[in-house]
Amino acid sequence: MNKTEIQEIIKSHFPTLNKDSVIILSKYASFLNLKKRTELISERKRHHNFYLILKGSAKAYYTKESKEVCSWFAFENEIVATIRAFNGLPSNETIVLLEDSKLLQFKTESIKELANTNIDVSHLLNYIITEHAVFLEEKLYQLQFMSSEERYKALINVAPEILQKVSLTDIASYLGVSRETLSRIRRNK
Amino acid sequence: MNKTEIQEIIKSHFPTLNKDSVIILSKYASFLNLKKRTELISERKRHHNFYLILKGSAKAYYTKESKEVCSWFAFENEIVATIRAFNGLPSNETIVLLEDSKLLQFKTESIKELANTNIDVSHLLNYIITEHAVFLEEKLYQLQFMSSEERYKALINVAPEILQKVSLTDIASYLGVSRETLSRIRRNK
DNA sequence: GAAATCATTTGACAATTGTCACAAAATCAC
DNA sequence: GTGATTTTGTGACAATTGTCAAATGATTTC
After folding, report:
1. Domains in chain B: how many in total?
2. Which of A148, B90, B107, B118 could form a disulfide with B28 if both were Cys (CB 3.0 to 4.6 A apart)?
3. Is the CB of residue A94 less than 8 Å from the CB of residue A43?
4. Looking at the domain assignment, is residue A77 inside a domain?
């Protein structure tokens, strides 16, 4: 994939950017074709890139005492990053590809530097982090107000493809219930 | 409180701002002295301001079928806003003062316009929303991995003043348990 | 300061969910 | 394809938490 194609992708995914910003951004972006189960970001390590999924999917999870809990899933056209890694700290989440995927990789440091002088890029980062915060608030809201059955139905309603791509074990932990409980929810229709 | 004093406050709370940005920001800020129980932001309404608490405290809560669930508390030196209100949408949270408070009020629209041309301010907004996202992630992590007793202990460990300022009913909903359960947690030492 | 209101605690009980053990089904590796 | 591994489903039981009702304690209001 050449630079012009990368610029086209950036332009179509981030329509608020002006031409110059697209060109500058593309200098710090590269196309990747990676296999299922590749770890994009690993717990306790520092990372220097974030990603845009062009094709494929990924999951993020926390680990505690060998128990894995999924925090989110990402599909086509979504950004893959962790707040800590993005801010130069060791990540506390691991992100792994759920299938063979095509990605655009961005150099975090370069993009952040860019944001120091380019207000277009600063706004883009602002937008991305706001989207993530909105997602987190919605998730907390659902945990507080909805039963596990309602949360399950809401999830497969907004993202039915999740059932094809994600194991029920991961969906259960994402919803905040045990595998067995999810299994029973699914049995009751 | 005059403009110079307001500028001093802004400077000390947001040390990344350069002098010019402080002066511009201060034009859209005003000092407020408000009574306990004043609603800074109300559910289903659009709002045009956000706040910095100079003295006092506030709580944010969601309502569903007359059930209130606290989403956060804010004390001195903290920002008070909701993501939806900040983006011009009707808020789905209500924010109310827990005690008589001194606040700095900022005009959201003006500050956002400022962020369009002033990269200093754009970074400041970026920082604020990132802090909030980090808070939300930590809260989700605790809900997934910690028992209600551990969450209670963690809360009074990082913010012991909360017991003086917030009702146990509100703390219980914040922790995601019923007030009866919190009462029993507290009884067991 | 007395009455009224609100917040907290408690007990009894029910509902939900987690845990464990194991079976069945699906997927993977060779 | 076949055996091995992983994932999913199930039942029995225990633990946690929610709900309801009532009592106590604290605070507010006039």
Report:
1. 1
2. B107
3. yes
4. yes
